[in-house]
TrEMBL record:
Its cofactor is Fe(3+). GO terms for biological process: alkane catabolic process. It comes from the Bacteria. One of its GO terms (molecular function) is electron transfer activity. Gene3D superfamilies: 2.20.28.10. Pathway: Hydrocarbon metabolism; alkane degradation. This is Anaerobic nitric oxide reductase flavorubredoxin. It comes from Raoultella terrigena (Klebsiella terrigena). Involved in the hydrocarbon hydroxylating system, which transfers electrons from NADH to rubredoxin reductase and then through rubredoxin to alkane 1 monooxygenase. The gene is norV_3.
Amino acid sequence: MQCSVCQWIYDPAKGEPNQDVQPGTPWSDVPDNFLCPECSLGKDVFDVLATEAK
């Protein structure tokens, strides 16, 4: 998933340790109160990356 505002990419293999999202956490299991670590906007501004689309 990629932030549509700042283009930061959520990598499930890395998670987001600063927000207690452990490595291996799929986007669907990331808490709804997750904020982009770069621009501080919520999950609603994230889009599926072309490489993730099926």
